[in-house]
Amino acid sequence: MTKIQKPVENQNGVSNVKVLFNAGKVRADFDESKTSADSLAQVITDLGYEVLKVKVKELASVSYTHLRAPRHAQISYA
User: Fold this and answer.
1) Whose CB among 2, 49, 62, 66 lies 3.0–4.6 Å from 77's, allowing a Cys bridge?
2) Which residues lie below 8 Å from residue 31, measured CB to CB, with a gap of 6+?
C-alpha cells in the first residue's frame, strides 16, 4: 500500500491520498494548477501497475484563494 501511496503523495499539489489495495483503487485530491489526474496515473504506471480507468470530479468546497475548485481523482489499476 505505501508502495503506491508515498509516490502519489509526493507529487506537487496532491493531498488526502487513500489506497484501496483490495479494490485496486487510489483516491487523491489534487490542485489542477500543479498536477493532473493523468500525471498521477503515470506515477502508478511507473510503479509497474496497469491503469484501467481514471475518474475526476470537482470537489464541492471551493477556496476563495483558488480560481479553480480542487479536484478529486479515482484511479483504478490492476
Assistant:
1) 49
2) 13, 14, 66, 70, 71
C-alpha cell of residue 42? 503515470
Instruction: Output the pLDDT for position 69.
Output: 60
Residue 78: pLDDT band (50, 70, 90) is confident
Beta strand pairing status for 25-30 and 14-20?
antiparallel
**C-alpha dihedral sign at 56, 57, 62, 64:** positive
Residue type, 76: S
Residues 14-70: tens digit of each pLDDT: 999 999 989 999 999 999 999 999 999 999 999 999 999 999 988 765 444 444 567
DSSP letter, residue 33: T
Give the span between the Cα atoms of 53 and 32, in whole angstroms: 18
